[in-house]
TrEMBL record:
InterPro entries named in the record: AAA+_ATPase, ABC_transporter-like_ATP-bd, ABC_transporter-like_CS, ABC_transporter_ATP-binding, P-loop_NTPase
Membrane topology listed for this record: Peripheral membrane protein
An example Gene Ontology biological process: response to antibiotic
Protein name, entry field: ABC-type xenobiotic transporter
EC number: 7.6.2.2
């Protein structure tokens, strides 16, 4: 499957400026700005209640913003919601899968909603069952599926219409580690095919693994934005520890690398490091192979970044039971697929 690309290559897939939203007197989003280039993954990272789903709901035209502007694939979300809905796919926190139908029937239903001719719809369902490793289970009722299988089917249903941009709202919450990895691989494949992905997550490792850019949302404000490496690079504390056997060699190295600190008692040299491969390479080029006995890279992780930026911890991946705790809403409930948005 290849995503159709109607957006000119240089135009951002998503462009948001000054987006604000309040519910009654509760200000949920305060002037959010962000840009997502086509064919990339943007992760909106934040704890429960930060406002992530509200951003997704505005960008997918389910609700309107109070202030600011947003364009999605060139369509203004306020003036041309139909254009947005036509070109996107959305997989929400609650599954759109109808458990009374088989996997194949769910996919065919989506194909019907996209007005695919019958034969084409059948072929598309088969193609997606194969792609999502659901062929063996395709003719079984979806109520017999594991949490990971349901999530894969849900995403497959979103892809029936070959959207060029997909929104994934907390795609792996509640999945076990293996199912999370499977889903990550699927997301990577989609991006390789040119699909743009906007995902929300509470998981630092998910943002780290998947995203080209990460926006850190806390209490309705974007407190930082950048690549995962850039965000980590903002923190002091990244360093490379180089070990020696010979105090003379250590002293010589400390003399030649001015930003380094020698720890004579443990025979190590500590060199500040921004976490990039290039700075590691540069340092390696300056070390004497014969003198060095070991090397360790200490890099701050996104958890450190989050704590430093917000003053509180985000959530670490914690495998939950494979079956989602919440029942699936009836078909037609909000924010399950792009097609839902279109109805
Ligand atoms: N329709 C609504 N009416 C009133 N308040 C709402 C509504 N939708 C969201 N909120 C409030 O907005 C805030 C942000 O909610 P949102 O669902 O966007 O957060 P989130 O970051 O997606 O959280 P989670 O990770 O728990 O899904 C919360 O305080 C929530 O109670």
């Amino acid at each position: 499957m290849t995503a159709t690309t109607s957006t000119p290559p240089c135009e951002p897939a998503i462009q948001v400026a000054g987006l604000g939203k309040s519910f009654d007197h509760n200000t949920v989003l305060r002037s959010i700005d962000l840009t997502v280039p086509p064919g990339t993954v943007y992760a909106l990272l934040g704890p429960n209640g930060a406002g992530k789903t509200t951003v997704v709901r505005i960008l997918t035209t389910l609700i309107t913003a109070d202030t600011g502007t947003a364009t999605v694939l060139g369509h203004d979300v306020g003036r041309d919601p139909g254009g947005v809905r036509r070109d996107i796919g959305v997989t929400g926190q609650f599954s759109a899968v109808d458990e009374l139908l088989t996997g194949r029937e769910n996919l065919r239903l989506m194909a019907d909603l996209h007005h695919l001719p019958r034969e084409r719809g059948g072929a598309r369902a088969q193609e997606l069952l194969e792609r999502f490793d659901l062929v063996a289970a395709g003719d079984r009722g979806a109520q017999t599926y594991s949490g990971g299988m349901k999530r894969r089917l849900d995403l497959a249903m979103t892809l029936v219409g070959s959207p060029e941009l997909i929104f994934l709202d907390e795609p792996t919450t509640g999945l076990d580690p293996r199912s999370r990895r499977e889903l990550w691989n699927i997301v990577r494949e989609l991006v390789d095919e040119g699909v743009t992905v906007f995902l929300t997550t509470q998981y630092l490792d998910e943002a780290d693994e998947l995203a080209d850019r990460v926006g850190v949302l806390d209490d309705g404000g974007l407190v930082a934005e950048g690549t995962s490496t850039e965000l980590k690079g903002r923190l002091p504390g990244g360093r490379i520890e180089v070990a020696y056997d010979d105090p003379g060699e250590l002293a010589a190295a400390a003399g030649s690398i001015e930003e380094a600190t020698a720890h004579e008692e443990r025979l190590t040299l500590s060199v500040p490091h921004d976490g990039s491969l290039s700075s590691l390479r540069r340092l390696m080029g300056r070390l004497d192979d014969d003198a060095v006995t070991g090397l360790e890279v200490h890099t701050p992780d996104l958890d450190d970044v989050f704590l430093a930026l917000t003053g509180h911890a985000a959530r670490k991946a914690e495998p939950a039971p494979a079956t989602p705790a919440s029942p699936a809403p009836a078909r037609g409930a909000h924010a399950s697929t792009g097609n839902e948005a279109a109805r």
